[in-house]
């Protein structure tokens, strides 16, 4: 698809990232949505069905379902069944805790893709990030899903802790009949508090770029286009699609350009009070993203690879849009206010201390 058409904004998003609840049984130290407790005002079952009806009617192709932990909604499987009846593809991100044989049976549909989160290739490395017992539960979920031949990927967030685990995660995915997907760490949600501790260094990002070129079967699926090499260029979009190809709906029905930019200034509208079609077509927030320029990057010989990188990381580290992605491999260093401790928590819980001990083994 030509970037020219993407930048104009399509008549409807291709996919919508929908966080269906804030409730979660885990408390991952880098959680992008600061999940834990269910919050007042989360969409009811009927309101969720309205969201599905609306998106289906606008020919949205896919829901990227997340949370919180989606399976903590008692109506979640029924909602997914309804989405499938409407012809919607669902890519469900889960920690796997609640997937057993019966749940896998109900998910056995050709419109279902499952992404199970792991941040280490062993219980000791993963559970330091995601909580005790989470590794075992995730592997059990993958096993149940593969028995039904449901397509599964293991999703790992790239941090200083997971970087040394990548080769082992490739092996683990292969042994489990899954694929590996690596997502970019972003300083939103609880990630703000530990960004300076977990974000990879420039040298590590260069290492990861080379590593990706040696592992063409590993997907990234998000804003690693800022470090894309020529040999992986055809594997995905080379620009941010926020407000152009995609958007995000929060558990409260709030509509944002991106799941990683759920800040008040980027609130484009709210469902079901407002029409999604009018939000998508007329929101000043979405028009802002459709006309977003990163002037400082336009003369770069890599601009055609990344178009300035990830606006969310630029915003969270520099508190403004239209700035270069600080993860860019060719730009000079930019002062990162998060590195100065702006969002540091005053104390560390036991798991953060344990996780920090793994930093010493990162390459």
Architecture overview:
This protein has 14 helices and nine strands. Mean pLDDT is 86; it is low at 332-363. With 363 residues, it is an alpha/beta fold. Helix 4 (101-107) crosses helix 6 (134-147) and helix 5 (123-130) crosses helix 14. Strands 6-5-4-3-2-1-7-8-9 form a nine-stranded mixed β-sheet.
Number of strands: 9
Output the number of helix runs: 14
Distance between the ends: 37 Å
Q: Shape from CA axes? A: globular
Which sequence of strands runs across the widest sheet? 6-5-4-3-2-1-7-8-9
- Give the proportion of residues in helices: 25-40%
Note the main sheet: 9 strands, mixed
Could you give the order of the helices and strands?
Answer: HEHEHEHEHHEHEHHEEEHHHHH
Beta content comes to 5-15%
Mean pLDDT: 86
Rg computed from alpha carbons, rounded to a whole number of angstroms: 19 Å
The helix/strand class is alpha/beta
Low-confidence segments: 332-363
């Amino acid at each position: 698809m030509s970037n020219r058409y993407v930048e104009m904004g399509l008549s409807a998003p291709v996919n919508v990232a929908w966080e269906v609840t804030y409730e979660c049984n885990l408390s991952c130290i880098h959680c992008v949505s600061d999940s834990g407790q269910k919050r007042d005002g989360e969409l009811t079952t009927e309101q969720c069905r309205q969201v599905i009806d609306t998106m289906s009617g606008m020919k949205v192709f896919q829901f990227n379902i997340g949370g919180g932990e989606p399976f903590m909604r008692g109506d979640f499987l029924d909602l997914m069944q309804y989405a499938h009846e409407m012809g919607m593809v669902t890519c469900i991100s889960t920690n796997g805790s609640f997937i057993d044989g019966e749940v896998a049976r109900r998910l056995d549909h050709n419109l279902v893709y499952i992404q199970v989160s792991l941040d280490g290739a062993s219980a000791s490395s993963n559970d330091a990030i995601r909580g005790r017992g989470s590794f075992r539960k995730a592997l059990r979920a993958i096993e149940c899903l593969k028995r039904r031949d449901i397509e599964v990927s293991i999703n790992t967030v790239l941090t200083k802790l997971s970087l040394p685990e990548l080769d082992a995660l490739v092996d683990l995915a292969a042994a489990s009949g899954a694929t590996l997907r690596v997502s970019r760490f972003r300083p939103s949600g609880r990630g703000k508090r530990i960004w300076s501790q977990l974000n990879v260094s420039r040298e590590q990002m260069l290492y990861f770029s080379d590593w990706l070129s040696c592992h063409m079967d590993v997907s990234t699926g998000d804003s690693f286009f800022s470090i894309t090499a020529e040999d992986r260029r055809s594997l995905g979009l080379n620009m941010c699609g926020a407000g152009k190809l995609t958007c995000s709906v929060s558990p409260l029905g709030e509509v944002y350009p991106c799941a990683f930019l759920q800040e008040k200034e980027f609130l484009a509208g709210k469902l079901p009070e407002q029409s999604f079609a009018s939000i998508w077509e007329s929101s000043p927030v979405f028009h802002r993203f459709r006309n977003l320029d990163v002037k400082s990057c336009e003369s770069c010989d890599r601009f055609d690879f990344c178009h300035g990188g990830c606006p969310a990381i630029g915003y969270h580290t520099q508190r403004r849009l239209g700035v270069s992605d600080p993860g860019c491999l060719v730009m000079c260093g930019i002062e990162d206010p998060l590195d100065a401790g702006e969002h540091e928590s005053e104390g560390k819980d036991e798991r953060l201390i344990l996780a920090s001990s793994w930093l010493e083994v990162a390459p």
